[in-house]
Design brief:
The chain has helices at residues 40-43, 53-67, 95-119, 141-149, 167-177, 211-217, 224-232, 247-252, and strands spanning 33-38, 72-77, 124-128, 137-138, 153-157, 182-187, 192-193, 205-206, 208-210, 237-241, 259-262. With 264 residues, the chain is of the alpha/beta class. The protein has a single domain (25-262), classed as Carbamate kinase (3-Layer(aba) Sandwich).
Length: 264
């Protein structure tokens, strides 16, 4: 039945579509709702593991500059700075068990990120795919969308809640669920390269590339499951260097920063 006078409906709003490539005047954002994928390693900064205070504070400030433009921001955090099951070669831990341990590590990072964001003035909600009600809300799609509409930064932790799926795949999945317009993959390099720029001297950056080329060439953008999910749902990915101050805002206002992965 249609809603009568005085009754409110609660359908999830779909952000207006936006296209990247032409910067708008006076720094007006070209995206209304974004998902930013942060690796766990990015939170450790110059350290080999753990959470580096100055680094996480810097990330929080970058997010706030975008949030202050009115952009709805969701963050996905990895856990590789604390525990990564696939890399624990000295431990004979079952793969599924190791993946669950990694998911718990993302909750630790999410709590740290939440604290840093709130200290710079961003109202934040931490949502976990693994229920732990004392520290995080359970992930509910419509509730997450409502938090974003209320201009709260939402942090998604716990991956997908299932083993054998990476936080890259979680980022793709959550982006579809909340109807984000783009996934911003924050890295330590300037974009997508034809080889690992940290290992291969003279590796060339690719400004635009298709999902199929990423899969066929085996480029380290996101894992193949995440790329396939983005390809099937036409979700663009922008890969950029988060270590350069102001880059996140530049991407959001449409400047040509980093590399874009699209259908064509």
């Amino acid at each position: 039945m249609p809603a009568g006078p005085g009754k409110k409906t609660h359908a999830m709003k779909t952000p207006q579509k936006a296209r990247r490539g032409v910067a708008t005047s006076k720094g007006v954002p070209v995206y209304q709702r974004i998902v930013v994928k942060l690796s766990g390693e990015s939170l450790s900064g110059p350290e080999e593991f753990g959470i580096h205070a100055e680094t996480i504070q810097g990330i929080a400030r970058e997010v706030k500059t975008v949030h202050d433009l009115g952009v709805e921001v969701a963050l996905i955090v990895g856990g590789g700075n604390i525990f990564r099951g696939a890399r624990q070669h000295g431990l004979t831990i079952d793969r599924a068990t190791g993946d669950y341990m990694g998911m718990l590590a993302t909750v630790l990072n999410g709590l740290a990120m939440q604290d840093a964001l709130e200290k710079v003035g961003c109202h934040t909600r931490l949502m976990s795919a693994i229920e732990m009600n004392q520290v995080a809300e359970p992930f509910i799609r419509r509730r997450a969308a409502r938090h974003l509409e209320k201009q709260r930064v939402v942090i998604f932790a716990g991956g997908t809640g299932n083993p054998y799926f990476s936080t890259d795949t979680a980022a793709a999945l959550r982006a579809m669920e909340i109807k984000a317009q783009v996934i911003l993959k924050a890295t330590r390099v300037d974009g997508v390269y034809d080889a690992d720029p940290e290992k291969v001297k003279g590796a060339k950056m690719i400004e635009r590339i298709t999902y199929l080329d990423v899969l066929q060439k085996g480029l380290s953008v996101m894992d193949s499951t995440a790329i396939s999910l983005c390809m099937d749902n036409k979700m663009p990915i922008v890969v950029f260097n988060m270590n350069v101050p102001g880059n996140l805002k530049r991407v959001v206002v449409g400047e040509r920063v980093g590399s874009t992965v699209t259908a064509a």
